[in-house]
Design a protein that fits this description.
By secondary structure, the protein is an all-alpha fold. The chain has 18 helices and no strands. α1 packs antiparallel against α2, α3 runs antiparallel to α15 and α10 runs antiparallel to α17.
Length: 420
């Protein structure tokens, strides 16, 4: 009988990780359904590109504001109980949204307030979940594969969730989409409990240089900046978060201005980006080493910029679907390969703070980009805004390649840290 393990990414050969992945897939899909429904609700109530950008801003700005605290929490707190508690809070917020929708609340401020609370909880969830992967797979060598599989899960949800939301919104109200997301948390909470992870010791003092206050932040940042991945690769990730991600919260407006204005088209376009990212995540999850990832993180940002500029001027739906698939693939290669290199090269006692800094660089800069793109689009138009963002990404990618070329010791330091 054929060994089916040979066909799986290495991390999925572990039973606990398979259980976790199944629950996480359901929860991520529900989260994307809610995100599309919330964006559609805000735009339907206000017809404002600015408020659409503000919604994305509130969902993500706390990755930037709370990154030092959430990263430190992931290094200090018992990760499994903390992650379960965060998921319970997120489920309760989804129920709150559903109840407001069913009650016919039209005050957009109420929805924006809940979006902010979701953003706060999510800022703590990401580093807690990412650093728990090592304990789930039980082997440092499998962390890269686990990160790749997690990206696959995220993009399965990104592909399926918006498409489902687009269909649902054609027949039912946004409130029921929020209720579906609330139910999806049963899957991930159940999976976390079913894994039966042994209690893990919390490294409260190991590697600590300070707390979450200003002095502790700068002390921790000084140590993190000594790692080559942080010093040379995270700036490009920050540029991608700032400039490449605003197309997502702007998608309802893009569809209204460029295409047919239907919610199903929003779902199709966002799912196309998810499909492209899923393909590249699958590729990365099967990579046995890090050599190819190092090459990819310097080339992929250039592709991101050129594809975004092409999408800005496409008015043919099939072409736009292909371009968004390419955009999703290249963005994921850039940021996920960097994340994998980061978690491989940073000592275990610093992984939470490193992931916190990573989330600040990508997810944390995204809301700044959302609000800037939304404001700029109201003055110069959507096409010009997306074109400008693409050009700036190309410039950032070229700068990063030149910086690495002029500092060969950076690459040597990275190779040494990965081979520890």
């Amino acid at each position: 009988m054929a060994d089916w393990h040979l066909w799986l990414p290495p991390a999925l050969t572990k039973r606990r990780f398979r259980v976790y992945t199944a629950g996480h897939t359901v929860s991520v899909t529900g989260g994307w359904i809610q995100q599309v429904a919330l964006a559609w609700l805000v735009f339907r109530l206000t017809n404002s590109i600015f408020l659409l950008g503000l919604t994305g801003f509130l969902l993500n700005i706390f990755y930037l504001l709370l990154g030092p605290v959430s990263g430190l929490a992931a290094d200090r707190l018992p990760r499994l109980p903390a992650l379960i508690a965060i998921d319970v809070v997120l489920a309760a917020l989804a129920v709150w949204l559903a109840l407001m929708g069913l009650a016919g609340v039209e005050n957009v401020g109420a929805y924006l307030m809940v979006a902010a609370l979701i953003g706060i909880a999510s800022a703590f969830e990401m580093p807690m979940r990412q650093t728990l992967l090592r304990e789930i797979v039980e082997d440092r060598a499998l962390v890269t594969s686990a990160i790749g599989v997690s990206a696959m899960v995220f993009n399965v949800g990104r592909m399926v969730g918006p498409a489902v939301a687009g269909v649902l919104l054609a027949f039912i109200s946004e409130a029921w989409c929020f209720a579906i997301n609330a139910l999806s948390f049963v899957a991930i909470i159940g999976a976390l409990l079913a894994m039966r992870l042994p209690p893990a010791p919390v490294a409260a003092a190991a590697g600590a240089t300070g707390g979450a206050g200003p002095e502790g932040f700068w002390a921790n940042l000084g140590v993190l900046m000594s790692f080559p991945v942080v010093r040379y690769l995270l700036p490009t990730v920050a540029a991608l978060g700032l400039l490449a991600t605003p197309y997502m919260p702007l998608m309802p407006s893009i569809v209204v201005r460029f295409f047919d204005g239907r919610s199903s088209t929003v779902g199709m376009l966002m799912s196309a980006a998810g499909l492209g990212a899923l393909g590249s995540a699958t590729y990365l999850s099967l990579q046995p080493g890090y050599g190819r990832q190092i090459r990819l993180v310097t080339a992929a940002p250039l592709a991101v910029g050129f594809v975004l500029m092409a999408f800005a001027w496409s008015r043919v739906l099939p072409l736009s679907l292909l371009l968004l698939a390419a955009l999703g693939a290249t963005v994921l290669v850039s940021v996920n390969a960097t994340n994998a290199l980061l978690q491989q090269s940073v000592p275990d006692q610093w992984r939470g703070r490193a992931v916190g800094l990573y989330s600040m660089s990508f997810a944390g800069t995204a809301p700044i980009g959302n609000i800037l793109a939304g404001s700029l689009a109201e003055h110069i138009g959507l096409a010009a805004t997306l074109t400008l963002n693409g050009a700036l990404i190309v410039a950032a990618g070229l700068f990063a390649r030149r910086r690495l070329h002029n500092h060969p010791e950076a690459l040597l330091g990275l190779m040494r840290s990965l081979s520890r």
